[in-house]
Amino acid sequence: MKALLLVDIQNGFCPGGNLPVPEGDKVVPVANRLIDSGKYDLIVASQDWHPPGHGSFASAHPGAAPFEMGQLAGKPQMMWPDHCIQGTLDAELHPELKSEEIDLIQQKGENPHIDSYSAFRDNDRDASTGLSDFLEDQGVTDLDVCGLATDYCVKFSALDALDMMPGVRVRFIEDASRGITPGGVAAAIEEMRTHGIAIIDSAKVLAS
């Protein structure tokens, strides 16, 4: 059972959004080709879904500025611009993404007191979203991960998939993903590779 996890391909992380990833919209046609390929038995997506005033927003901390380090729940936290607020256009999946083909949309980041980069659990590694249970119940043996952003939500999702679903083969699709900084992307890819996650491109999936 092969599954594709599309991480946070939302308006907020694409050009024109509140927290745009450089060239974030370029992942959409690649993701659509993967969706249409027939190579996957199951397609799931994660969706950042923050309540207004979420603790990861710089605006929730007087004197804080976006993209500086602060604290949340007693741990270091990057302060972000307000983004992907529940029910807003910013939080919607990209309009050109073939979302009608997605079997499950897993929302995350709903707890205002802790951030959730991973599609599988909060950053404190305590509260699970339930995605790993769903995938295991479906009998998933292989999981390909891609989306936005490589150096944050994609990386943490891939690593958590590996940790929370022992025996499942996890691969990262590089050309179906974009990151915030080149250095962050390089470090994230190396970290995933070190943990045994295969680094591939969409051509390998389509040719298999």
From TrEMBL:
Domain of life: Bacteria
A Gene Ontology biological process term: pyridine nucleotide biosynthetic process
Listed GO MF terms: metal ion binding; nicotinamidase activity
Signal peptide span: none
InterPro entries: Isochorismatase-like_dom, Isochorismatase-like_sf, Isochorismatase_Nicotinamidase
EC number: 3.5.1.19
Pathway annotation: Cofactor biosynthesis; nicotinate biosynthesis; nicotinate from nicotinamide: step 1/1
Occurrences of domain Isochorismatase-like (ranges): 3-203
Key words, A-Z: Hydrolase, Metal-binding, Pyridine nucleotide biosynthesis
Entries under PANTHER family matching the protein: LD05707P, PYRAZINAMIDASE/NICOTINAMIDASE
Family, per entry: Belongs to the isochorismatase family.
Protein name: Nicotinamidase
